[in-house]
Amino acid sequence: MLTFVLHRGVGLLVSTFLVITITFLLMQMIPGDPAAVMLGANATPEQIEALQETWGLNQPIYAQFVHYLANFLRGNFGDSLFHREPVLGIIAQRAETSIWLGAVALLVVVGLGIPAGVFAAIRPNGLTDNTMLLVALAGASIPSFWLGLMLMALFAGKLGWLPSSGFTSILETGNLGNLKNLILPGFSLGFVNAALVARTARSSMLDVLQADYITTAKAKGLRSRVVIMKHAFRNAAIPIVTVVSFTFASLVSGAVVTETVFALPGIGSLIVQSVLKRDYPVIQGIMAIVAVLYVVVNFATDLSYALLDPRIRYR
Question: pLDDT tens across 208-221, in order?
Fold first, then answer.
């Protein structure tokens, strides 16, 4: 296990380095000058040059990258070119909204996807199975932003049951009722991924339910609930856990669109604003943090395999 952890730790460092390097290079390829955007159309060349000198934007690319990498190793992502504040502070202010949104979306993914797939596999080719496949196909085909707009028009516009936009910090107000602002965006973001989880759970359960040990368990007179949950579901859980972990990337990328549609002050909307303003330090900081989170999630998923299946041993 220790050897495995060490190997994955090295992989985490390499992956993070590659991500921040690629992100840095891509930011340099974006057309437009941050100094010119910041000063506006009426800025003189001398003013633009002076601001470039202040922020080090006139230095060679390799010098800028070495400076950024050195700051990253110290846990310092620099200051935002537009907000004039530390990047980590800006990200921390927006992180609460994205964390709550991701939690609501993940709850939809797990709460809808796994039960739907399991129930469909219990009675294959029946009404429940066909209905689930139809809903899963629709969920995989519908863009999350379109679903969000339709939900907003119905539940916020026509019925008036839920807010259509915005979110107030729970940490500042202590009011969990603010989560109602995230029901519509969380459902629209999670429903698309729930469809994939449901299909994976169905396929995995169908394979396990046809195994000999399941037939033996039924022959011993065990209750159907015990056979399904204790014997079948646990052995079918590894592919399901893998797909759920991979939805992390989808939730992160989908949050950019969802937060923009619902006007949520989260990381996704911050990415859009930073790209439009050519705020390189903020974009690079967000990408670095997301890369680390993604690698950590994959690492935790690998470790969970040994807990789900005792036959798996890491050396």
Answer: 888 887 888 778 87
